[in-house]
Amino acid sequence: MPDEDVVRRIRGVVDLELRRAARLRGAVVEVGDDVARVVGLPACGADELVVFDSGALGMAHELSPTHTGVVLLQGAEQVRSGDGVDAVGLLPSLPVGRELLGRVLDPLGRPRDDRPPPAGKRQPVFRPAPALSERAPVDRPLLTGVMVIDAAIPIGRGQRQLIVGDHNVGKTALALDIIAAQVPEKVPCVYVAIGQPSSRVQGVREQLELCGALAGTVVIASDAGDPPGLQYLAPYAGATVAEHFRDAGQGALVVFDDLTKHADAYRELALLLGRPPGREAFPGDIFYIHAQLLERATALSDASGGGSLTAFPIVETTESDITAYIPTNLISITDGQLYLDSALFARNQLPAVDVGRSVSRVGGAAQPASLRAAARNLRIVMSRFEALEALTRVGLDVDPSTREALVRGHLLRELLRQPRFTVRTLAEQVFALTAVSEGWLDALPPEAAAETVWAVGRQALAQSPNLFGEWGQTRGPQGDWKQQLKLLLERVLETER
Fold it and tell me: Which residues are catalytic?
């Protein structure tokens, strides 16, 4: 049986020849700012690719009885009024498959890493989301290796978790840390750069390569200098690449960096094509396009292959205003948000995740039982600590129980501070949280206690890999693991003295 992609391409070529033979060709009547107005393409479908006589490539984006609004994707500077236009009968597409891992491509699958074009089977960038009958509950954990997330804001495979914060507070850095944590689990990742400077895309690629995550990651990049049409296609292309792994029964992860720029590109296209502006000049369907995109992230049932696609869209706020139009839309679409606070970032509390304002609406069901037990009431403890700390700044005397809460709060805050690309394993996190709650570290200064607890955790795992028994969704560490770890901690402290 012939390959569907080959059949589709042959059909497009034949259709193109028939159109030319029958003179059913369009003509450019107006062009400018990366869009063109074309007449004479009555049978052209929505989002269908069109080719100009100059060789330029476009996409039919606005259909009306009198004309077709075309978004130019390539060769916009070569298009002139009067040029002929042909619809090719194909939708925008790009290759998918494992051979894309480690590559940097544009939204149409063209290489941006000085390597040959990939030869995988092509898939359209616009694909329908799985039906409700094909979906499964989010009940498997996606460990990010970032302790503040795994312990306080757990995320499950198939979840859509928004990363929100002001400019330069570490949103991209946090997303790259999460990608790096997937290397041991061999979770294929896709990073989508939307409207970013090419130097920043190159920096992301170098960071992924430095931490060993590039070999398991596909980078889809639409630079700031690209036409807005390519920036509009970028997140859909990234979702298509990630869906290949999901549909093969694997767990996949995709980062959209960021949907603020995606919304800006879509607004630019809409206004240039004459669509009526709405709130903040965005077109009325801006909510729909992001919902359509993020609905593609889900966990599939066993009957549908059992794969999952977890999405981390990023949105930028201005002066911490999460009530702005686009952030509000995305918060209502997603399953929770990781809120990065500028004040925490300024105090070097990195990653600057605000535990009080961050939330995960479904991931708690997927959190490993051992970590759930160790992190019980963590959010309440941190909130109480911050309130007590504010009181002590004015010089009030406190009772012993309050002083104990302050000591453990300082220690927890120090434990939640995490260097870049430092993956905290599940066992390390459970041990650290248990050591704090049991009071094993109360006599140590917070900085020294944090260094000690991580060192002891690594030593315990190296000396006794089976100390924690089987770790999973229902079973936690077995036996007298607490007593063994306490003795190990005491020996380390005695040696240091």
Answer: 361
